[in-house]
């Protein structure tokens, strides 16, 4: 198949003029990504596709946010649930930059502490974890010092 034919097949969600395309999101985490990035509360045009075929992920999702360019620390918040996400920065319809997400050293306010007795599960305290390993991920709570592992991670 020719390259432009392949491109057309892939373009299930229309191209955008300016903004950010976040590709290779695991389909099951699409709505968590939307909420972590606050995309449910901004007025930018947003299109997304989900349950698209992906060799690597099985089912992937893609989000296109017009006129929005993320800071590294903003986008790295999704690394926990979309570690293979690829960002494409679009200017005048062209991909001008590609970025990957990186797992930050600490995570504030996104994940629940696994320890039911932790103060963050019983009072209005924002969670905060130190990332103690990245593959698989494990998080050490700043308050109770208990470890939350990859399979135990739940969003707040
Ligand atoms: N894209 C878009 N609007 C544009 C240009 C690109 O929405 N004006 C999207 C494409 O649909 C694709 C992503 O941005 O999902 C990356 O574009 P491109 O680098 O052209 O695609 P690929 O070569 O397939 O990149 P990769 O293999 O890294 O996904
Ligand atoms: Zn805790």
What are the main properties of this structure?
binds zinc ion, 9 strands, mainly beta, binds cytidine-5'-triphosphate, SH3 type barrels, five-stranded antiparallel sheet
How would you describe what is shown here?
The model has no long low-confidence stretch (mean pLDDT 92). The chain is 12% helix and 37% strand. The protein has 2 domains: 13-100, Alpha-Beta Plaits (2-Layer Sandwich); 106-152, Roll (SH3 type barrels), CATH 2.30.30. It starts with a helix and ends in a 7-residue tail after the last strand. 22% of the residues are buried. With 156 residues, it is mainly beta. The protein has 3 helices and 9 strands, in the order αβαββαββββββ. It has helices spanning 3-10, 30-36, 72-75, and strands spanning 19-26, 46-54, 58-66, 86-91, 94-100, 106-108, 128-134, 137-141, 147-149. It has a 5-stranded antiparallel beta sheet, with no helix packed on it. A 4-stranded antiparallel beta sheet has the order 6-7-8-9, with no helix packed on it. The structure holds cytidine-5'-triphosphate and zinc ion. The site of cytidine-5'-triphosphate has 12 residues, from strand 1, strand 3 and strand 4.
Outline the secondary-structure elements:
Layout: H1 3-10, E1 19-26, H2 30-36, E2 46-54, E3 58-66, H3 72-75, E4 86-91, E5 94-100, E6 106-108, E7 128-134, E8 137-141, E9 147-149
Antiparallel strand pairs: 1-3, 1-4, 2-3, 4-5, 6-7, 7-8, 8-9
